[in-house]
Design goal:
heterodimer, A: about 70% helix, B: about 300 residues, mainly alpha
Chain lengths: ~300, ~300
């Protein structure tokens, strides 16, 4: 060996550590500290107020309204996305001819797999505007179809009763394709002889799905659940760009509350950071809970 | 490249052998009904996915009058002038270039620093390694919102507010946790024998990394590179906070947001559709060309 390993360790580790420390770690740590002040941003005066911001938070009805919406997303987004994802992945990978062992896809499954993944490569901003126009009450794609069928044409994003659900639908729409591909890849990894054995035992299609495929996919479903739960606590970009939380705060989410508190008309950085801290603990506990709830024995194919 | 393919269509290969085994037995009736049923739903979702995107592309050729009168109608002519207007007046062209510059810088930085750190974590024993590794990887768990306010001031105090350099450094910093996590796992899977042989032959540690380890890690680098490229290209919250002022330096997502807002005031629907089309088509074209690698790259991180 010409040189020791330490020159390399130091050269390789210090630049990424510096970058990470300055732009990721230090902001996160500062956020906790700022959340205990009444800092209004540009002025230098920030007084320590202890947990006052968190006490205000508890009485903030706008925030609770946003929390309620995120809670609905937290329940519905994973359920709808995973159900649709599993359904389509099953159809694509096992919808083929019965009487054949194992995973046989339907004809054209590669085309479906290509198309379903489209939303995943597009920026959320693009998705937000595409759908904002689809929902446009006068010249949108959706109401154009409804009018042609002689049905009533709602205002969708302009109506407090429908705005939130319209945004939820877009969230599901943009996520399903990814999980179809994810579940599909996991299904392909299940050994074929398991299906051959099930077929020999006369197992029906439905039994095969519920007793073999889904249990063997459980690990992947668990991962999907955590990712979708974290996505459900966010939803910021779609909501901000499609409805800006409106009308009348009906589609507000916590992230938007925080953003507007910090970068809106008043720059309440102390209070906004407190909201950020709450989001941090929410995300953390959701991830831990999801891991706990979904814990099962890991299956290894020998 | 075959090692990154997690979505190999085994179906086609399997159906060949399977049908040979079952011979000419006609499909059972249950299958026919189910196939129609499943194809129906699959086609419906394919339609739901493509129709809104297709509609935007078709609408980008329409005049505003056509858009307002009939949303389902076809354009009377291919009005590429809408595209030209979005490209120059709404400056989509310039924002495209800006995004390309920023992402080129940040992606290079991410991959270089990420691979270096991951290599050290995967291959060397030193005091504090575990702690540093978890410190790094823990960054994946935090919502970016928590950091937003202090990050704004950190970047401003360093003097990088409203600069591309600032964006490049911040993009790279926030991509590092996942990159390091993914590549550390990847470097661990590579055989150690080649590295040992090279060291015995007198190859230095640095040469070993650049000449032997990086080429061996190519499939992993490609996967995580695709993942990082898309997430950095589509980034919106970070530039919105860190690049607020100078319009000429905005990235594509910000340009689209501005276009959508000005469309709201001016009613220039065709301009908005053209801008969306221009932003959408290149990404979709690249995706269609590299479908397998991109799907594998994006799902690889989740399948662990």
């Amino acid at each position: 060996m010409k040189h020791g390993k330490y020159p390399l360790i130091i050269t390789f580790l210090v630049p990424p550590l510096l970058l990470y420390g300055i732009f990721v770690l230090s902001p996160y740590l500062q956020a906790f500290q700022i959340s205990t002040t009444d800092w209004l941003g540009y002025s230098a005066s920030a007084n320590f107020v202890g947990l006052d911001n968190f006490a205000t938070l508890l009485r903030d009805e706008y925030l609770w309204n946003a929390v309620k919406n995120n809670a609905i997303l937290l329940v519905l987004l994973p359920i709808l996305t995973i159900a649709l994802g599993l359904f389509f992945a099953t159809m694509l990978n096992m919808g083929g001819r019965r009487g054949t062992a194992g995973v046989v896809g339907v004809r054209g499954s590669s085309v479906y797999r290509l198309v379903y993944f489209f939303p995943q490569v597009l920026s959320v901003v693009i998705i937000a505007y595409v759908w904002k126009e689809v929902y446009n009450p006068n010249n949108g794609l959706l109401n154009g179809a409804l009018r042609a069928l002689g049905l009533p044409a709602p205002t969708w994003l302009g109506d407090p009763r429908t705005a939130f659900w319209a945004v939820l639908a877009v969230m599901v729409w943009s996520n399903v394709g990814f999980y179809v591909v994810l579940f599909g890849a996991a299904m392909q990894a299940i050994p074929r002889d398991i299906y051959e054995a099930a077929l020999l035992d006369g197992s029906s299609r439905w039994t095969t799905l519920t007793r073999i495929t889904i249990p063997l996919l459980w690990d992947t479903v668990q991962v999907a659940w955590i990712y979708l739960a974290i996505a459900a606590l966010d939803g910021f970009i779609l909501v901000q760009q499609m409805t800006d939380g409106g009308p009348n705060h009906s589609s507000d989410v916590i992230g938007l509350r925080m953003y507007n508190t910090a970068f809106g008309s008043e720059t309440k950085f102390g209070y906004a950071s407190a909201i950020g801290v709450v989001m941090f603990f929410l995300t953390l506990s959701v991830a831990v809970l999801a891991l706990r709830a979904a814990r099962r024995e890991r299956i290894e194919y020998a | 490249m075959t090692t990154v393919d997690t979505s190999v269509p085994v179906g086609t290969a399997a159906s060949g052998t399977a049908s040979a085994r079952t011979g000419d037995r006609p499909p059972r009736r249950e299958t026919g009904v189910l196939n129609v049923f499943s194809h129906g739903f699959l086609a419906l979702w394919a339609l739901l996915t493509t129709l809104p995107l297709l509609w935007v592309v078709v609408s980008s050729f329409k005049s505003d009058a056509e858009i307002l009168s009939d949303p389902w109608g076809l354009p009377g002519a291919l009005r590429f002038e809408n595209w030209a207007r979005a490209w120059t007046e709404a400056r989509i062209g310039q924002y495209f270039l800006n995004s390309a510059v920023v992402v080129a810088g940040s992606l290079t930085l991410t991959m270089l620093l990420g691979a270096a750190a991951a290599y050290v974590f995967a291959r060397f024993e030193f005091r504090g390694r575990q702690l540093l590794y978890y410190l790094f990887v823990g960054g994946m768990m935090f919502p970016v919102f928590l950091a937003l306010v202090p990050l704004f001031f950190v970047v401003r105090n360093i003097g990088l507010f409203n600069t591309w350099t600032g964006l490049i450094l911040v993009y790279a910093a926030y991509s590092l946790p996942f990159t390091v996590f993914f590549l550390t796992a990847f470097f661990r899977t590579l055989p150690t024998s080649i590295a040992e042989a090279a060291l015995i032959d007198g190859c230095g540690h640095f040469r070993l990394f650049f000449r032997v380890m990086l080429p061996m890690a190519r499939p992993g680098l490609i996967s995580v590179g695709i993942f990082n490229f898309l997430s950095q290209w589509n980034q919106f919250i970070l530039p919105q906070v860190l690049m607020q002022g100078d319009e000429s330096k905005w990235v594509l997502a910000q340009g689209l947001a501005a276009l959508a807002i000005s469309q709201g005031y001016q009613g220039d629907f065709s301009g908005l559709f053209a801008g969306l089309t221009l932003a959408m088509l290149p990404v979709l074209a690249v995706y269609v060309a590299f479908q397998r690698q991109i799907q594998a790259g994006l799902t690889a991180g989740q399948l662990r």
